[in-house]
Amino acid sequence: MNIHEYQARNLLEKHNIKFPKGKVGSTPKEIYNIAKSFGGKVVVKAQIHSGGRGKAGGVKICNSASEAKEFSKKIINTRLITNQTGPEGYLVEKMFVTEITDIKKELYLSLLIDPDSECPVFIASLHGGMDIEKTAESNQANIFKMNCDPLLGIKPYKLKQFVAKLNLPGEDNSQIVSLLNNIYKAFINNDCSLIEINPLVIDDKENLVPLDCKITIDDDALFRNKEILKLRDINQENIMETRAKDYDLAYVKLSGGTVGCMVNGAGLAMATMDITTKSGCYPANFLDVGGSSDKEKIKEAFRILVSDKDVKYILINLFAGIAKADLIAEGIVEANNELNNKLPIIVSMRGTNSESGFEILKNSNLNLRVANDLGDISKLLLELEKTK
Ligand code: GDP
Ligand code: MN
Question: Taking the chain (388 residues) in consecutive chunks of 10 residues, what is each chunk's mean pLDDT?
Fold first, then answer.
C-alpha cells in the first residue's frame, strides 16, 4: 500500500527525522492561508501516489501566497499525469505547502527489500533529484548500496564504510548516520517495503534535509498495522485491483493481453498464463481466486474480468480441491447471467464434484468451450483467434 507524501513525512517525523515546515490543504483558500503563515515564499506540491510530479508540473516554487493559491486552483481536482501514472493520471485532492529550502546539492537515498539478497538494502546516490532514473542507468559508479541483516540490523562497520563512500561535503557524518538509523527503525517498525527520499539535499548551511519522501507498506503486514491502514486512499488505486483486494482475490492487471484468466492457486495461474502466451495470445491479468473459493468470490472475480475492456475471451482453469466445482460453476453461471456476458469462455475444471460442475455449465446459456487439458486450452484459444 502506498501513502501520500504528507502522511509519509508524519510517519518519519515520529522517528526523529526532521523535514522543513509544511502543511497539507485541500482548497486554494487553505493553500493561501498556509502559504501566508509561512511568509509567502513556499513550495506547493500535488499529493498523488506517484513520483515524477516535478517534471509533470505538479510541484512549484511560489514567491507569494497569491501565487500559491493560483497554482493550487489550477491543479486541485484535476488529474495529474506523470511518467509513472499511465495516461489516466491520478486525481489531485490535496496539496502540500512547505517552506523553501536552498539547495546546494541533491542526493538520493532509499531503503527497500532486495529480493536477490533477501535483505533490506540502502541505496544512495550523490546525484539525486528528478533525473535519478537516468543516473541509475548511466552512472552506476555513483550508486552505493548497503545490505542490512534482517535479524541484526545495520552493522556499525558497514555503516562506517557506507558513509565514507558517500563522502558528503561539509558533513562530519553525524547527520547521515542518525538519518540512516532512524530510517531503518521506521522501516522495520512499520513493515515498509520502501522508504525513498529524493531529493535528500545539502542546504546552504550544509545541513542534510529531506525534501520529499515516498513510503510503501507491505500489504501482507497491514493486518497488524491498523493505524497505517487508516491512511489508505482508495481514490489513488486501480479500481479493479482495489475491488479484488476487498474480496481477498490476488489480481494483477497486465497490459497488452486479451485473455481474462481465472485460476485457483498461484502455480496453476502461472502455468495457465504460460500456455496462453505459448498459444500466441496474451493474458490480460493474473487472477488467483484461492483455494477455498466461495461462490461470492467467484462471482466477483468474473465481474472483474468482464469489466476489463481489454478482455476478449475468458479462460477459467480450476482445480477443485477444498473448493467444490459445482459451487464454482453456479457462481460462474450466476455472474454470467447477471452481467449478460457474451464473451466466449473456455473452461477446464477438475477435482471435487467436477462432473456436476460441468453439467451446470453445459445446461446454462454460457458461450462455452470445454477444455480437457492444458493442450486443449491452447487449441481452443487458437481457434478463437482464427475466427476473430
Ligand atoms: P517528485 O518530482 O514527485 O519526486 O517531487 P519532489 O518533491 O521531489 O519535487 C521535485 C523537485 O522540486 C525536487 O527534485 C527539487 O529539485 C524541487 N524542490 C522541491 N522542494 C524544493 C525546495 O524546497 N527548494 C528548491 N529549491 N527546490 C525544491
Ligand atoms: Mn521526489
Answer: 97 98 98 97 97 96 98 97 87 98 96 94 92 82 92 94 88 90 97 97 94 96 94 89 88 90 93 94 93 82 92 93 88 92 94 92 92 92 87
3-state secondary structure of 380: helix
Q: Which of 122, 287, 107 minimizes the C-alpha distance to 211?
A: 107
Among residues 5, 67, 196, 330, the one annotated as catalytic is 196
Q: Which of 45, 202, 212, 236 to mutate to test the pocket of ligand 1 (most atoms within 8 A of CB)?
A: 212
Indicate the pTM of the whole model.
Answer: 0.81
3-state secondary structure of 78: coil
Closest CA to 112 of 124, 122, 127: 122
Q: DSSP 3-state assignment of 348?
A: strand
> Which residue in 6, 32, 90, 108 is the catalytic one?
108
Q: Cα angle at 291 between 271 and 354, to 5 degrees? A: 80
Cα of 67 to ligand 2 centre, how many Å? Answer: 22
For atom 17 of ligand 1, which residue has the closest CA?
A: 54
Ligand 1 center from residue 44 Cα (angstroms)? 10
Regarding the beta carbon of 100 and ligand 1, being less than 6 Å apart is answered yes
Distance of CA 169 to the CA centre of its chain: 35
